[in-house]
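Budget justification, computational time. The allocation requested in the original proposal was used primarily to generate structure tokens for proteins on the priority list. As evidence of use, we reproduce two of the resulting records. The first is shown immediately below.
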Amino acid sequence: MPIAELQVYSVEEADGSGGVCLVRCVGGTARSGQVYAAGESRVWLRDIERYGRTVGSFAAGHTARVRLAGAVVALLSRGQVLTSVPPDGHGLAELEGWLATVPPLADEPLPRTLRSLAVGGMRDERLPDGVRLRWGRVALAAAYRCAAAEGASDLVRGIELAFVRAYLLREFGPGPGGDPAALGREALALVDLTPAEAAARAGDWRALPREGIVHLRLIRNLLRWAGAARPYLAPGDPLAAALDAWSRVCRELP
């Protein structure tokens, strides 16, 4: 994860939950959702304001008014440099705590940022398997947060969940990596076409309206990940036969 550094110009307001600071980015790119080290404490970059409008990031050499979460904000001093840190064991535990709350807390990382952090941890082969599995569970929970925050359809949400579950299954196998049958069954439940119907539409997909083409592509992407369940299903399992039927059709989808 690229390192970003913020130098504090002033603390404009602060209370026990965080505050607003004027800062200058002196290294890398500062982004909403990043975690920064302030000594042994951590603060979270919640919002960035430049020239009176909210932005998602700003680069080295620029200043911004930022909202930081964390009680230590009140103790920050002029000239102090905050350094972004990758999520470590401590950060993972905090994220797990955040995701145990419903609805989301006001000071947790943005859903898309949270998912990106979690997927990165899940795929980091330098980490112990147990830690990667914990990151995978965070990524699954973050996918639900993303869907709720972005108004995503069930099919889009299903793709994000299936991607994470397929990765965990391939890396760690059934059990630790999840339930293959549940992956396949839940993916197929989101598809509103039969294989024959999808094949018929795929035969002349260029003539479909844009929404129809996108729909077929979403189905293809969902079932691509759901196919990770197939090697773990018993011969003769009806679910295996259904996934095989879709596997043949998906080759023809746009």
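The second record produced under the same allocation is shown here.
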Amino acid sequence: METIFIVEDDAKLATLLSAYLTKYEFRTVIVDDFNSVLEDFKHSAADLVLLDVNLPRYDGFYWCRQIRKFSLCPILFISARDSGMDQVMALENGADDYITKPFHYEVVLAKIRSHLRRAYGSYAQTQEERTLRSGGLTLYPERYAVQYAGETAELTQKEAVLLEALMIKEGRVVSRERLLDLMWEDQHFIDDNTLNVYITRVRKKLKELGLETIVETVRGAGYRLSLTDSNL
């Protein structure tokens, strides 16, 4: 029996979701203390998370990032906020799907079953987490985190894609065009300065770990990750 972890501050909606899912033989855990979401998640042994955006104290994006530090389980946002930016924020912070309110319970159930199949069932590729390691730097691309010397920095989805591309080609130049292809399916709507912004963000995250000069700009060519002794 799979466990669904429900983080929803509308108590009535949380109860209705729980009752509906229980009919289909799911075990549910409803959060009632929004100061201890992460602790409750760890104790729940949840297989999937249903997560609202608007929550007391910290929003759903924050809790999504915290859960991603410990788990790769599917996270589905359920929110009345239907803007494209909210959906982008959810995905970049580690979510797998975004469902807008009002919704049909049948749709929620279908998405839950689909994500569970992909994560654990017949469609699952592997339960082993991917990691990239180079020069003491470790990237967890599926949970959007990078670690060095025991310290961890959180990344957005696109920051993780960018750093992964640089780490794979460590010591070699990765062109701007290649990075744009990896980060955006359609470059036509991407301002040329956008990539510069993400490079700056990645450099800032690495600086938090004590790595200030490892992402080099190669003028007219692209960027290179240099993990030489002088940079580490």
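A brief technical remark on that second record: Helices lie at 11-23, 37-44, 60-68, 84-92, 105-120, 157-168, 176-183, 192-208.
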